[in-house]
Design brief:
It is found in: Golgi apparatus membrane. Its main location: Golgi. One of its GO terms (cellular component) is Golgi membrane. It is a single-pass type II membrane protein. It holds the Pfam family Exostosin_GT47. By secondary structure, the chain is an alpha/beta fold. The chain folds into 2 domains: 62 residues, no CATH class; 158 residues, Rossmann fold (3-Layer(aba) Sandwich), CATH 3.40.50. It has 9 helices and 8 strands. The strands form 2 sheets. The protein has a 5-stranded parallel β-sheet. Strands 1-2-3 form a 3-stranded parallel β-sheet, with no helix packed on it. Strand 1, helix 2 and strand 2 form a beta-alpha-beta unit. The relative contact order is 0.14.
């Protein structure tokens, strides 16, 4: 009866993983399916946000950062600009689908991760690892820059983890809609690199390291930003 009273307009759905409203890991299939008609008047809380119209956003939606446990950022972590960080640029995660995968899809809807591996896989400044490792957050805490490329969706928990661990997040996901923009000035605490500019990523990071890296690190450690 509550649904019938408003046709769902006063109902809130929590979609807590990357693709939120679309419920499917393959972007093309998800976009083809879109949001069911009966949900379109409702409110969706989700971690997936893009700028502009998108079949998976065709409802009132609020973008929230994914949950990260408090123990991810121990209080004894030193301020990032004072810490010894021996990894220049870090990423650990899926970068391509095994050739035997019958779908034929690359992991990352626009092959960004595969391109990162091709360009920087043998570059000693880039710590790129494809195998799962439960202690990957300790690697983030040793890194200056943490790469946050899109996977099937533009969003993943590693963006929040990077901030909490004092590693400058490098967002490589065109048209991403970031959470809480009214509270957080994301340009102050992160870098955004266009997907088409991945080939120039090393030069971008070198420039930041030589100019305003310390300023960004101090912004990351601002208590209000970390609380947000």
């Amino acid at each position: 009866p509550f649904w019938n009273r408003s046709a769902g307009a006063d109902h809130v759905f929590v979609a807590s993983h990357d693709f939120g409203a679309c419920f499917h890991p393959m972007e093309d299939v998800a976009m083809a399916a879109g949001i069911p008609e009966f949900l379109k008047r409702s409110i969706l809380l989700q971690t997936f946000g893009v700028q502009g119209r998108h079949p998976c956003q065709d409802a009132e939606h609020v973008v929230l950062p994914p949950y990260v446990p408090p123990e991810v950022a121990p209080r004894e972590l030193p301020e990032p600009e004072k810490a010894h960080r021996d990894i220049f640029a870090f990423f650990r995660g899926k970068m391509e689908v095994h050739p035997k995968n019958i779908s034929g899809h690359f992991y990352s809807s626009r092959k960004v991760r595969t391109e990162l591996l091709r360009l920087y896989g043998r570059n000693r400044k880039f710590h790129l690892k494809r195998k799962r490792y439960d202690g990957y957050r300790s690697e983030m805490a040793r890194s200056l820059f943490c790469l946050c490329p899109l996977g099937w969706a533009p969003w993943s928990p590693r963006l929040v983890e990077s901030v909490l661990l004092g590693c400058i997040p490098v967002i490589i996901a065109d048209n991403i809609r970031l959470p809480f923009p009214g509270v957080l000035r994301w340009p102050d605490i992160s870098l955004q690199v266009a997907e088409r500019d991945v080939a120039g990523l090393e030069a971008v990071l070198d420039h930041v390291a030589a100019t305003n890296m310390t300023t960004i690190q101090k912004n990351l450690w601002d208590p209000m930003k970390r609380k947000a």
